[in-house]
Amino acid sequence: MLKVKALIRLTIGPVDLTVADGECVAITGPSGTGKSVFLRAIVDLDPNEGQISVGKISRENTPAPEWRSHVAMLPAESGWWDDNVGAHFKNPNKITPQLTDIGLANTAMEWEVARLSSGEKHRLALLRCLENDPEVLLLDEPTAALDHDTTLMVEALLRKELERGTSIVIVTHDAAQATRLADRRLHLEDGKLGEVAP
Amino acid sequence: MNSYLTLTYFDVLLATGFLILNGALSLWLNLQLERKLLIAALRMVVQLLLVGMLLKSLFSILSPWLTLLVAMAMVLFAGREIWARQDRRLRGFWGYGLGAGAMGFAGAGVTVIALTTMVGPDPWWTPRYALPMLGMILGNTMTGVSLAQDTLHGAAARERVAIEARILLGANRMEAMLPVVRRALRAGFMPIINGMAATGIVSLPGMMTGQILSGVDPNEAVKYQLLIMFLIAGATGLGVLLATFGSIWRLSDSRHRLRLDRLTKPKG
Fold first, then answer.
1. Where does chain B have alpha helices with state H?
2. In this predicted model, which residue has the larger pLDDT, B205 or B73?
3. Does residue A195 fall inside a structural domain?
């Protein structure tokens, strides 16, 4: 369970948010209202104030690298630091069987990063951030670069994560996706997070 | 080997003939370089004459405080040069302080140790030895530090997404920045590594040539040059490491975040 209390970052907040185990919350809102900033603050990628905890683990008592292995974030733009795809994974062999689930060829671990399409990058980045078995997943537009069929494949993968008890916060512009995946919908505007009636 | 031929000012004047020839050629071919040549040559004349007078009086007064004052001025000017050579700098005091501090600490430290233990003039701070040695060591350390910091700051900003991707996967700040740090260290070390490798084959170092011209046995001049090169390499390495790790410390925080907000915007 993710608990955010009185989170303040730049123009955002104070924001409270609780996401139960296996619950998916979708955040919508106009561009530039700071949805990504909000996610970055939860993983502690920017200086911010507020108390956040996952289960019994509180952020302030946890070293930052360890905190980020409990709370994973998939940014809108994925980052790569090596020429080969496989080098970005802790255990590429374990990933290979999952590749076909999200519409990638099972040779993807041997590919070069420079030749990836943005959609391929994004799906690989999602698998990469699942490698730590995080309790909380923060997703920033995870399917923006994908066609409809592939989007559904990614959503099926996310549903499997939800069944395992992972809490998911997803930022999306796609209202249909929010309805398909999310248990609750929230709206971020003027630094305040509000419930959207179903 | 001990004959030292002094030059008259007339000899120097004659040597300008070749430069004047270049100026004339520039005028004739309309290269528009003559003004720049003239200004640069005049600057050099004035600066060197002043330095010559300054050094001559420093050598005769033989005051430790004056020597220290000149040495400090050299460090401050070189620090400003490091600052000016970076496209993106650390904000605030650190922008100047870190590079100048790293260079000053490494350069002055190595010079003082060399003077007191290896070269051994009496007194150890004798300006005729201390200032030229400090100048050579500082000049090279300055180049190394500015290249390393410029590379590190530019690459950290350019590769923010890749660095943050590693941070998000649970890497600590050092792991996340390692590729960028390697590049910065390589940039800082490269001039001195190349310099050592090419010395004696491609280039004859200025100091050695100068000593030979003034009548010193070439074997003795080589010994001096080796000593200086080792000192320069040591000081450059130390300064580059200090400045690079200092910059990493400023560009990240205890929560292992990348803090690009502590960098200035790029120039231009």
1. 9-28, 34-61, 64-84, 93-113, 127-158, 160-168, 173-198, 206-213, 218-251
2. B73
3. no
Element (H, E) at A64: helix A64-70
- Coil/strand/helix, residue A3: strand
The rounded distance, in Å, linking the Cα atoms of A140 and A142 is 6
| CA dihedral for B172, B165, B87, B252, sign (positive or negative) | negative
Q: Which of A52, A68, A127 to mutate to test the interface with B (most CBs of B within 10 A)?
A: A68
How close B155 comes to chain A (CA, Å)? 12
Distance between CA atoms of residues B179 and B266, nearest Å = 21
Supply the Cα-derived Rg of chain A in whole angstroms. 16
**pTM summary value:** 0.90
ipTM: 0.94
Out of A65, A81, A125, closest to residue B170 by CB? A65
B161, B164, B168, best to mutate vs chain A, most A CBs in 10 Å: B168
Contact flag B165-A131 (C-beta cutoff 8 Å):
no
Q: Looking at the 3D structure of chain A, how many domains does it have?
A: 1
> What single letter denotes the amino acid at residue A108?
A
Residues with Cβ < 8 Å from B23, sequence gap 6 or more?
B33, B34, B37, B38
pLDDT of residue A198: 66
- Contact call for residues B70 and B131 (beta carbons, < 8 A): yes
B143-186 residue pLDDT tens: 999 999 999 999 999 999 999 999 999 999 999 999 999 999 99
Of A44, A69, A72, nearest to B255 by CB-CB distance is A44
Do the beta carbons of residue A138 and residue A74 sit within 8 Å?
A: yes
Would A176 be classed as within a structural domain?
yes
Q: Which residues, in sequence order, are CB contacts of B234 under 8 Å at separation 6+?
A: B110
Average pLDDT over residues A165-185: 94
> Do residues B230 and B170 make contact, with C-beta atoms less than 8 angstroms apart?
no
Please name the residue that has the structure tokens 């950290």.
B156
Alpha-carbon distance of B11 to B18, in angstroms, equals 12
Q: Where are the domains of chain B?
A: 1-61, 63-262
Q: How far is CA B54 from CA A192, B74, B97, in A?
A: 67, 13, 27
d(CA B259, CA B163): 11
Residue A18 sits in a domain whose CATH number is 3.40.50.300
**Tokens 């549903």 label which residue?**
A159
Residues 6 or more apart whose Cβ sits within 8 Å of residue B33 = B22, B23, B26
The amino acid present at B194, given as its one-letter code, is N
Q: Does residue A196 belong to any structural domain of this protein?
A: no
Report the chain A residue with the minimal C-alpha distance to residue B168. A68
